[in-house]
C-alpha cells in the first residue's frame, strides 16, 4: 500500500507513510500460488511481498502499467491520491479488468465496504471469492515495522480466479471464506424488482 493513511478512500491524506501487508498474509498468498507472486503493482521500499515484478512510485504508477501477469497481489492505497485523481475504486476496477482480459488470478487486500459503488461494480457479480479476515484490527507494517497499531476498519481478501476451492482451503484459517461465483450475471440489490408488499 503506497503511502496513504488508511481511510478507505473517504479522505485525502498525505503520502508520508508506506503501509505494508502483514507477513502472515504474504506467506499464505505465496503458498496459494505455489511460492511466488508474479506482480505487485503497489509496492514500496519496505514491502515484504517480493514479487517477481514490482511497480513503485514515483518511477512506476501501478495503475498505468500492464498487469498482464499470471498472479497479481494488490494492497492498494486506501486513501485518495490527490495528485493522480485516483481512489481505491480505480484499483478494484483494474483487478476485475485484469482477470477478465488476461485470465490472471488476482487477490486484493482491501477494506470491507460492501455498500460502496466499487464493491457493487467490481466485486459482487464479478469476483469469485472473499475471505473476511478474522483479525479485529489488521496490523499493517508501517515503514517496515510492526508498531502494534491496528487498522481502523475490517479488511478482506478478494479473489478473482478459477481456483476457488483451493482459495478456501488456504485462507479459511484466516477468516470466513465465501464463494460468490453464484452471483455472476445475477441482478443484485436495487436491480432486483421486488413486488410491493400489501399491508392490511
Gyration radius over CA: 17 Å
Uncertain segments are 2-17
- Average pLDDT over all residues: 83
Number of helices, counting only DSSP H or I runs of 4 residues or more: 4
Largest sheet: 5 strands, mixed
Secondary-structure-derived class: alpha/beta
Helix content range: 10-25%
H/E series:
EHEEEHEHEEEHE
Strand order within the widest sheet?
4-5-8-6-9
Number of strands: 9
N-to-C terminal Cα separation, in Å?
54 Å
Overall geometry: globular
Instruction: Report the β-strand fraction as a percent range.
Output: 15-25%
Describe the structure.
The chain is globular. Helices cover about 20% and strands about 20% of the residues. The chain starts with 18 loop residues before the first strand and ends in a 21-residue tail after the last strand. It has helices at about 25-30, 90-100, 115-120, 165-170; strands at about 20, 40-45, 55, 70-75, 105-110, 130-135, 140, 155-160, 175-180. The protein has a 5-stranded mixed sheet, with helices on both faces. The chain has a two-stranded antiparallel sheet with strand order 1-7. A two-stranded parallel sheet has the order 2-3. Helix 2 (about 90-100) links the parallel strand 4 and strand 5. With about 200 residues, the protein is of the alpha/beta class. It has 4 helices and 9 strands; from the N terminus they run βαβββαβαβββαβ.
